[in-house]
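ok posting inputs for the adenosine-5'-diphosphate job
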Amino acid sequence: MLSPSARFSALALLAIVAPAAIVAVLGYVSIRQWEVSSELLYREQARDMATMAAEKVEMTLRRAEDAFLDRLQVALRSGTPSERAVDALIADSPLIRRLYLVNPRGELLYPRAWREGDLAVFGPLVSGAALRRLERDGKRGVISNNLVCLALLTQRGGQPVVAAYLRDPDTMRREILETTLGTLESSTNIAVLDHEGRTVYSRAPIGDARRVLSVGFREALPDWRLAVYQTSGASPRQAVRRQVMFFTGALGVLVAVIVAGIVMTWRLMRRETEMARLKSDFVANVSHDLKTPLSVIRMFGETLEMGRVADEGRRQEYYRVITREGERLSRLIDNVLDFSRIEGGRQTYDMTPTAVEPLIRATLEAFGYPLAQQGFKVEVSVAADLPEVTMDADAVGQALANLIDNAIKYSGDDRALTIDARIAEGRLVIAVSDRGLGIAPEEQAKIFEKFYRVGRSDTQGRRGSGVGLALVRHIVEAHGGTIAVESAPGDGSRFSLRLPLGGT
Ligand code: ADP
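and the output
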């Protein structure tokens, strides 16, 4: 059979921790799926956007070149244009850096001569074979690094003319790439890479950004590519990962709070169970404590009553026993009653200036008989110059009595009791020491709790209710003071009361 707290823990585990774990696993799985699908979706969108952007670039480039070629075609149709007219046309089109017009026989129509180096580049392009290919493939061609282009035009009379021109890279960047890509509504970074992978243009510095994908252009820029970059930390995977971390953290906190709640409730329940056990022990202990002196009193009373004790000395001895046991009974009952008054918040203290030494001596006197009978070596050392201290003398006397009673109760063979009183750090310190059983360090804080006893009365064989030290602590704290214990098992204990001189 499980104990109530173990049953509670098992239930709490089942009811709270298990669903939390299931939620965590499900959350984790769905977040992983979300991570993968968001990455896919992002790539798809990036590809669509890149294709669209590449088309837009091509269209803008084509439109600019077409505008120039259309004007050139109009000029050629109306006869061989003058060199100045073609110069003006080129000056009007910043995208065209240089132009050569060549007839099918390979004769240069414009300008008058090849610029240095250009013949080597353009010569083979405008040969008869190249011309035929142009006629066959569609009148336009882009050759050599996307900057050299050819177009087939016609002269007046239907004669074909090859227009070979060089694109201006700066104008391309500024007026084609910048105007089309720069205005695109997208937060991703886009770059145009040339045939060798060098960046010709980028919307923003690329730095260590990751390339997501790249798409090719078509005829107008055949071997350049448009690439999409992602700045570090901005990928959907990373965004999801951040969410995952947040989710996991939140779940962790939740689980921690739940577990802390369970642990606290469990502790509370254990404390309650422990308290219930201590209380029932207390009732048994008090009853036992009451019974012993009562039966002694009864026995001695009856013996005396029957007149069986002839010897006067013995009779006196019996009277003393009855008185002593009666005192012990009153002390015990006072302890229990005061304790219950304090617990119920009904205890009041009568604070009056009190001489310390007489209080100590009077309290000790009540224990004169047991001390003498058990052969205790008693030492009282009170500092000579002790002032009167404001206190409830009865209450402090009761606290002292409890400490003395304990010193007697928990002494072994080495029977010694020392009480000393002095002023230290502006407080009255009264210490009660014995050379008895001592208290283990781990027990020292607990002994001041109500009903707490080290070991049980049956194991230790010493009477007690477990409220003595709790009462002492209550009294001392009500005076604004403290109680402390120094003790080692086998070496005895020293309990020190520290009280403010003026009271509270
Ligand atoms: P009790 O009625 O059991 O004496 P107390 O509250 O006075 O209750 O003390 C609590 C416990 O502290 C005792 O059960 C005992 O184990 C321990 N204790 C108190 N005083 C001493 C002492 N002088 N030496 C050894 N143990 C002590």
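notes: The chain is about 55% helix and 20% strand. The two ends are 52 Å apart (CA to CA).
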